[in-house]
Amino acid sequence: MSAAGGPFQALLAAKSFGMSACQLFTKNNKQWSAPPLSPDSIQSFTNTVQETGISCSISHASYLINLASRDDDLWAKSVAALTDELIRADQLGLKYVVVHPGTASDAEEEFALNRVSAAIDTVLANIPKLKARLLLETTAGQGKSVGHTFQQLGRMLSKARKGRNVDICIDTCHIFAAGYALSPRSDYQETMKEFDGEIGLDRLAMLHVNDSVKGLGSRVDRHAHLGMGAIGLAGLENILSDERFSELPKIMETPKGKSPDGPEWDEINLEMMRKLCISN
Fold first, then answer.
1. In which region does residue 147 sit, left (phi positive, over 0), alpha (psi from -120 to 50) or beta (all else)?
2. What is the pLDDT of residues 263-276, one digit of tens each?
3. What angle, rounded to 10 degrees, do the helices at 185-198 and 232-240 form?
4. 29 with 60: CB under 8 angstroms?
5. What is the 3-state secondary structure (H, E, C) of the chain?
6. Alpha carbon distance 220, 215 (integer Å)
7. Which residues 6+ apart lie within 8 Å of 116 measured at CB?
8. Taking a C-beta distance cutoff of 8 angstroms, is the pair 181, 140 a contact?
9. CB 235 within 8 A of CB 176
10. What count of other Cβ atoms lies within 10 Å of the Cβ of residue 235?
11. Which residues lie below 8 Å from residue 5, measured CB to CB, with a gap of 6+?
């Protein structure tokens, strides 16, 4: 949800749709820096959490951040930006901060993974009393992004000294585009078995629930409305109705706006997601 006008506005928007969890940007996601959160802004957010009952709030870090960069200046800038994102999350009492690992550019894979691990250690060392949990998000593998295989993510965490302090956010569109099938059920089970083997199901902290415009293994990051993309309802149902994930927060990053029939797409997608969650 948009935080235009202050982070608390995102909670009010989520509440208007009857949502019980909310993801927001705590600053302009297309800019490196932003003014610190004011005491009034923090208090307004705290008050709105109590008013709405939405206690599970998550922030998404800026898309500019590239923890895998070979460029020392960009890497340092990314570390500083992620540190700031986590501090802002703690000020607001957010549960998680989700970040994309980054893009390897001309770097070799092993070098890129080491850069991400070093960034994790540097960021978490900067905030020894951090309460918000850092989550690495699975990627689609578009361009030269890293984190599109479970093995890569597992290696990032194992290489980092503070890797046990970081968990994973699965984006359904991203893993599907990266080549992980979500249907039929036997293929879905194989996908989650591989995740468990490379990372561990206990490290899965939340889901981004999106259909995919492009097909399996396309490595194209294009989100679609639930049931209106290449994953389809069967694939989404497999992961959403998985009892192991029933307590995980599930965030939609589907396209915004009104549907041709009038209702907001957020309302339509939310209703569909809830049906799929209880289908079994």
1. left
2. 999 999 999 999 99
3. 50
4. yes
5. CCCCCCCHHHHHHHHHCCCCEEEECCCCCCCCCCCCCCHHHHHHHHHHHHHHCCCEEEEECCCCCCCCCCCHHHHHHHHHHHHHHHHHHHHHCCCEEEECCCECCCCCHHHHHHHHHHHHHHHHHHCCCCCCEEEEECCCCCCCECCCCHHHHHHHHHHCCCHHHEEEEEEHHHHHHCCCCCCCHHHHHHHHHHHHHHCCHHHEEEEEECEECCCCCCCCCCEECCCCCCCHHHHHHHHHCCHHHCCCCEEECCCCCECCCCCEHHHHHHHHHHHHHCCC
6. 8
7. 67, 68, 101, 102, 136, 146, 147, 156, 160
8. no
9. yes
10. 26
11. none
Q: Which of 255, 9, 31, 61 is nearest to 169 (CA)?
A: 61
Judged against a pLDDT cut of 90, whether residue 192 lies above it is answered with: yes
Looking at the DSSP bridge assignments, the partners of residue 44 are none
pLDDT by residue (tens digit) across 27-37? 999 899 899 99
Question: How many angstroms separate the CA atoms of 205 and 133, rounded?
Answer: 9
Please give the structure tokens belonging to residue 213. Answer: 């415009």
What is the per-residue pLDDT for 107? 78
List the strands of the sheet with 96-99, edge to edge: 21-24, 56-60, 96-99, 133-137, 166-171, 204-209, 250-252
Give the pair of three-digit tokens for residue 8: 């608390």
Q: pTM (2 decimals)? A: 0.96
Question: 């939340």: which residue's tokens?
Answer: 206
Q: Find where tokens 């990372």 sit.
A: 199
